[in-house]
Design a protein that fits this description.
heterodimer, A: alpha+beta, Ubiquitin-like (UB roll), 2 domains, 11% strand, globular, B: alpha+beta, Aldehyde Oxidoreductase, domain 4, five-stranded mixed β-sheet, 32% helix, 2Fe-2S-bd (chain A), 2Fe-2S (chain A)
């Protein structure tokens, strides 16, 4: 296995190459913020970045990751204005309910604002529709992304 | 990530249980743990992180602990699963104590120390008085202790920001400094509660205590529990309920890297593979190639269940509620109207798949789980391990979605059964496929209503038959009435904003074979409201009446129902022209002690597509604790209900559940969610009602009535977008 670069730190793990990244993060390294929701890339609870791009860790075999930079929700840098704006908006608007999907939602929202600083409702819906929330916090997620975009403008 | 030393937590838990049982404040002073024990636990004030077993000199009741260093710990009787109850519970105590809700650390009550269950939208109703009393009792004692110290009258003191204040001089003393003295005072039985006019917290928006940890991903759910030495298992129960393992390839399974064991339950209905990590366990489970003996339920299909329910419309039934002679009035009436409604089996599918961690030792057992029923979790562990309940420690975790699923505890039973077979702590994680196909389902129901109508089209008599299971008969048998009735079925049927001159509710019990049925968000309210509000809407249409005006006439003597209806009609612009291509529907309800009226404005580009442009709701849930979280529950509850109403139906073929994962079990996504939800919370001084299920109960009738307006046909079968509706196959 190649050494994995996770949140800027090298980690060498001894698992089969077909092991999804999610289980290396959670069960081997104890990085629990990315969640298991479905295992088939349907719900987005396990969203992480690989080279800055949002991907689903639950069906990404570690053997395919190589030495590319992995960012988990733990690795989001509060010094980054977009991260700070999104997290602050989530708290300000009390977006969360059960909270299980929210690290994934935050990852997706940060990725959206990186490419689309002032998204429309339609752009938000399009970017966020891969991240399910069973509690139905969608109204507040939409509002919080607008709120964060406004803070950054 | 925090870890546990089971031996020390077990000891502390036992000591606290003694404290709780001892009850008296004087005894408490002798039982608090050593300073070393306390120092080991860093303060989690304001973080929302759950602490355990905090013992302090001042512990006047089951809910409040104040340490000499002024660390305030509040022990919360109901479990947090998203509904915001931790925040509201803290607000209730903080209001009376005189503290900032963010200045406390929180603990989930252990089994026996809090609510027996968290469910049925009952938390605020049951906490409203006792938690304020707990806060007021503690305040009274702290004030008395400070006043004695100062030599002043207690009446001249108040509390604020965790300190007693002597108002005339402005002197203050932190609670912690008088905690030990206060602990020696008698606990007042009926402490004086604050006048509502002086509330600074109750009724005002307060941020959730658990927002930050849930945004950062540091909140610990059952799924995130890590115990030293723990291994991870995943399970397969027989796809047909009641079946057993015939054979399996253990060697292939054990050959997978990182696999430790293949375990089977005593009754051979479930297999567990234990490994270093979930993926190895999952791969190994597949490699087992389990062959099952499917047993007697192998021929069941959904149609078997529906046919049985429809058959129950004729033949014997219990009379669950009666007023005057409804059948007689209907028999003699010149004008009657009848409709039959059908609802499907539903899965819960919370975002956090089912999981549980247990460590069974000869001298005790620890269970880490998200559960709405911690006592049942403890008791099942005691039964399986043959240990006394006092040797079982349940560590409650944040719940990644309950919706009724975690009112079941069979996954705790299962986990302890497997953990008992191994020497190490075992975390069991269900795959999403296992979570959906081995759920305990919201039952399917068939309802038939017949009304006698006066010359204006209003009800003179209503006869309603419900055919379906009695969930309570399994879940809490003593609650089944001696006639065999499940009172849950009275929600939104007998308990309603309407009154009828004559009424009769019948129940024909039909238990579905081959599956287990259970509570699901909104329980009888969700079930009943779809039927009753759909039927009322049909009667309004039959009378040629406006649906709001028709309901308004029916609730003239019910001021709270009338007020929410008038308010929502005004807010939604009910009287204004509907934008081209759109339609509106309304629902009115009284359930869980709360009133709500709601209006949906939708568009249907085709019979199988619904765009929800706007939902407007007016809710009167009595005295509100945290209004923004009431709004959040209505928003989220509606969306949870919309998913089911539009898309969801569990079906069985050959005794197996067909839906497997979120690719075949559709959940509403952001692009399908309403464009806008506007909720107004009506000011009220009535006692608090429940709110966690109110939105969900409204969802199906609201959409069904709006869709009926859009399509000019009724929707009497759920889900609304099933082929039965979109292709007219009723």
């Amino acid at each position: 296995m190649p050494t994995l670069m996770i949140n800027g730190q090298p980690h060498s793990v001894d698992v089969d190459a077909d092991t999804p990244l999610l289980w290396v993060l959670r069960d081997i390294l104890g990085l629990n913020a990315a969640k298991f929701g479905c295992g088939i890339a349907q719900c987005g609870a396990c969203t992480v970045y690989v080279d800055g791009k949002a991907v689903r860790a639950c069906n990404l075999p570690v053997g395919l990751v190589g030495e590319r930079a992995i960012t988990t929700p733990e690795g989001l840098d509060m010094a980054d204005p977009i991260v700070r704006a999104i997290k602050s908006a989530w708290v300000e608007l009390d977006v969360v309910q059960c909270g299980y999907c929210q690290p994934g939602q935050v990852m997706a929202a940060v990725a959206l604002l990186r490419t689309t600083p002032n998204p429309t409702d339609e752009q938000i819906d399009s970017a966020m529709s891969g991240n399910m929330c069973r509690c139905g916090t969608y109204m507040r997620i939409r509002a919080a992304i607008h709120h964060a975009a406004g803070e950054l403008a | 990530m925090s870890t546990h030393s089971p031996s020390s937590t077990t000891r502390l838990k036992t000591s606290r249980r003694r404290v709780l049982q001892a009850g008296g404040a004087l005894l408490l002073a002798t039982l608090w743990p050593t300073a070393r024990g306390r120092a080991a636990q860093a303060s989690q004030a304001g973080t929302g992180v759950l602490v355990e077993d905090v013992a302090t000199p001042f512990a006047p009741n089951a809910f409040i602990r104040i340490a000499a260093d002024n660390t305030i710990t509040l022990i919360l009787p109901n479990i947090e699963m998203g509904q915001g109850i931790y925040t509201s519970s803290v607000m209730l105590m903080a209001e009376e104590l005189g503290i900032d809700p963010f200045a406390v650390q929180i603990e989930a009550a252990p089994p026996g120390g809090g609510a027996e269950i968290t469910g049925g939208s009952t938390s605020i109703m049951t906490e409203w008085l006792p938690l304020r009393q707990a806060g007021a009792a503690a305040r009274t004692m702290l004030v008395q202790a400070a006043a004695s110290h100062w030599g002043v009258a207690p009446e001249s003191c108040t509390t604020a920001n965790g300190a007693v204040v002597h108002t005339p001089t402005g002197r203050t003393v932190p609670f912690g400094d008088v905690a030990e003295a206060a602990a020696k005072l008698p606990v007042p039985k009926e402490p004086k509660l604050k006048d509502a006019a002086n509330y600074t917290l109750i009724g005002r928006k307060h941020h959730r205590l658990d927002s930050q940890i849930k945004v950062d991903g540091t909140a610990r759910f059952g799924m995130d529990v890590q115990v030293p030495g723990m291994k991870i298992g995943t399970v397969a129960a027989c796809p047909v309920q009641g079946g057993t393992v015939r054979s399996m390839n253990r060697n292939a399974a054990l050959a997978i890297n990182g696999v430790h064991a293949v375990l089977v339950t005593d009754n051979k209905d479930t297999v567990c593979v234990v490994a270093e990590h979930y993926w190895a366990a999952r791969k190994s489970l597949k490699a087992l190639h389990i062959q099952w003996d499917f047993g007697k339920n192998a021929a069941i299909t959904t149609q078997t269940i529906y046919d049985d329910l429809h058959a129950g419309l004729n033949g014997p039934a219990i009379v669950a509620n009666a007023k005057a002679d409804a059948p007689g009035v209907i028999g003699k009436s010149g004008t009657t109207y009848t409709a039959t409604y059908q609802q499907p089996l539903l899965a819960h599918s919370p975002m956090e798949p089912i999981n549980c961690t247990a460590h069974v030792r000869p001298d005790g057992c620890d269970v880490w789980a998200g559960t709405q029923v911690a006592e049942r979790a403890r008791d099942t562990a005691a039964e399986i391990t043959d240990l006394p309940a006092s040797k079982i420690t349940v560590h409650s975790q944040y719940i990644g979605g309950g919706f009724g699923r975690r009112l079941e505890h069979e996954y705790v039973t299962q986990c302890v059964q497997f953990a008992k077979q191994v020497p190490y702590p075992l975390k069991i994680i269900w795959s999403r496929e296992e979570d959906i196909t081995k759920d305990r389902y919201r039952p399917a129901y068939v309802d038939k209503l017949t009304a006698a109508l006066d010359d204006k089209g209003y009800i003179t008599a209503l006869q309603h038959r419900i055919v379906g299971p009695a969930v309570v008969a399994r879940w809490d048998p003593p609650e089944l009435t001696k006639d065999g009735y499940d009172e849950d079925l009275s929600l939104a049927t007998v308990v309603t904003p309407y009154t009828y001159p004559a009424y009769r509710l019948e129940f024909a019990r039909r238990e579905a074979p081959g599956i287990t049925t259970a509570w699901w968000r909104g329980v009888g309210g969700t079930r009943g409201l779809f039927v009753v509000e759909g039927f009322i809407d049909e009667l309004a249409a039959r009378a040629g009446a406006d649906p709001v005006a028709y309901r308004r006439a029916m609730v003239q003597n019910n001021p709270r129902a009338l007020a929410v209806l008038e308010r929502v009609a005004a807010d939604a612009g009910w009287g204004t022209p509907v934008p081209k291509g759109r339609a509106r529907g309304v629902a009115l309800q009284f359930a869980f002690g709360s009133y709500m009226a709601s209006i949906a404005e939708i568009e249907m580009p085709s019979p199988d597509e619904v765009i929800i442009h706007r939902v407007t709701a007016a809710v009167d849930c009595g005295q509100v604790i945290n209004p923004d979280q009431v709004i959040a529950q209505i928003e989220g509850g509606l969306i949870f209900g919309f998913s089911a109403a539009l898309y969801n139906e569990i079906t069985l073929e050959n005794g197996r559940v067909q839906q497997q994962n979120f690719n075949t079990w559709r959940v509403m996504r952001m692009n399908e969610a309403p464009r806008r939800i506007d909720v107004v919370v009506m000011p009220s001084k009535e006692d608090p009602g429940g709110i966690g299920e109110v939105g969900t109960a409204a969802a199906a009738p609201l959409l069904a009535n709006a869709m009926a307006a859009a399509q000019g046909r009724r929707y009497r079968s759920l889900p609304l977008l099933s082929a039965r509706n979109t292709e007219g196959k009723e």
